[in-house]
Amino acid sequence: MRTMKRFLLPALLFILGLSANIIAQYLNDFPAEVYRTIHVSGHILFAAAVTWTIIALIRAAKVSLLRRYDMSVSDNLQVRKLHTQYNIIEKILVFIIIVIAIGITLMQFEAVRSIGISLFASAGIAGLVIGLSAQKALATILAGLQIAITQPIRLDDVVIVENEWGWIDEINLTYVVVRIWDKRRLVVPTTYFMERPFQNWTRTSADILGTVFIYTDYTIPLNALRTELTRLLESCKYWDKKVNVLQVTDAREHTLEIRALMSAANSPDAWELRVYIREKLVEFIQREYPHCLPKTRVAVNKQTGDPPSTVSDL
Fold first, then answer.
1. CA distance 231 to 44
2. Among 121, 128, 165, 301, which has the highest number of CB atoms less than 10 A from its own CB?
3. Phi, psi at residue 63, to the nearest 5°?
């Protein structure tokens, strides 16, 4: 039903254009202006019908091809690659077809045709002026084409752009839409991903590592903390059972920096897993080892009665 609706309007335009051309052939007794108007209108309607039909065919073919590839699966790297390529190629083809159709339509008018001939006569100057004025637009379109070929980003990739964490939601010829985690939309030009550095967390696979940093006193029993981390991960549905590491990554003046490293199937699961582990580890230390929480120590010289030395951290 949806396919039928897609081709209904171009079919109507085709019929109208064909009817106008047929009617124009039998209007010999009418003034030339009327004949010319109906004749040009028929050509315009015919061109619009053909253009619309080609675009509808391209989109129908894209939908038919992409229906075979489900992006909801967990390991969807190849699927996202295909979706990205097909979407950008579709936009490029539609853009080219529309430009050609507009050119054909405008050439039906004598005034525009004479302008075109004048431009061809001075093609060198016109090309230079147009090239300079459209340099930015052409660079943006070429960047979109380059993204389709090299694919530094793909649809649904997890990226950090302008210090914002989100997913690639749309890739167009001139701009890319990033869906931020709090449902905002960050719109950046396609040239951004060719000219500036950014983070792509799912460049080679959908799975991702998550980290949680905990700061404790030096007296914390690390083996007990490792055992608790393993228990929490095994009870959590977001863990993919691949990575489970707890290490002391820094020994500061008054605290230990402890990093819990874990893995998840995708970035949303990794976020939920990190939040869960951080909360439960803090609760475990508060409940079982409250004396190991970060604290401030003050040393007093009892013999001399000097003021306490300042020793402080978290």
1. 71
2. 165
3. -60, -40
Q: From 3.30.70.100, 3.40.30.10, 1.10.10.60, 3.40.50.300, which CATH number describes the 208-292 domain?
A: 3.30.70.100
**Tokens standing for 116?**
């075109």
Say what the pTM is: 0.54
Which amino acid makes up residue 155? L
- 189's tokens: 């030009």
Count of CB atoms situated within 10 Å of the CB of 111: 8
| Chain centroid offset of residue 112 CA | 40
Q: Residue 41: CB partners within 8 Å, gap ≥ 6?
A: 17, 20
Contact 34, 59 (CB under 8 A): no
What CATH number is given for 158-200 in this structure? 2.30.30
What pLDDT is recorded for position 103? 75
Tell me the pLDDT tens digit for each residue of 123-180.
455 555 555 555 666 677 777 778 877 788 888 888 889 888 888 888 887 889 999 8
Q: Report strand pairing: 158-161 vs 208-216.
A: unpaired
Rounded-to-integer distance, Cα 256 and Cα 68, Å: 51
Task: Print the SS3 string covering 133-181.
Answer: HCHHHHHHHHHHHHHHHHCCCCCCCEEEECCEEEEEEEECCCEEEEEEC
Rounded to 10 deg, the angle between the 32-66 and 2-25 helix axes is 160
User: What average pLDDT does this structure show over 236-264?
Assistant: 91
For residues 63 and 9, is the Cβ–Cβ distance under 8 A? no
